[in-house]
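[audit] Reproducing an earlier prediction to check determinism. Same input, same settings, fresh worker. If the tokens differ from the archived copy the diff job will pick it up downstream; this log only records the rerun itself.
[audit] input (182 residues):
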Amino acid sequence: MSTKKTFVIIGIFLALIIICSVIFYPKTFPTNAPINIYFSPNGGCTTAIINEINNAKLEILVQAYSFTSAPIAKALVDAYKKGIKVVVILDKSQKTAHYTSASFLANSKIPTFIDGQHAIAHNKIMIIDGTTVITGSFNFTKAAEEKNAENLLIIKSEEIAKKYLENWNRHKDHSEPYEPRY
């Protein structure tokens, strides 16, 4: 193959890469979205989450890998009792975990689902009222608050919440209802 043909092929290939990156590259999000940042251990992550739950007006959607935090579970149940829609998706490990908030939530009539379609459903998020996203490495557990090195972001952005909601719905669509063990 001649050098000229090689350069033409490389040029076309590079042009296709640039075009595809413009078309398929994820949107950037607003840089002015208010973000509160927390770290653990003992950095106020659990309190910050509970404050956001307590301020919810319409809806709280949850995805969690591990969920053993009694204060967060109680705050979700209290919100549900006030008429706020609460729906929870958990990793399949919560079906057999020694202690999990899954049964507490489900027995409190909060729709609780298990996402068993992945090796690990490792999301740790809440979407509140379509405007607030809680995310980060922070599991909703006592250990995450008191022992682990974790991070938590609380992002106030309808645009970002919309993207998280789309993902949450995809996972909800393939999740199965949780059957409490006790």
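[audit] rerun output stored. Observation attached for the diff report: The chain has one domain: 29-177.
[audit] end
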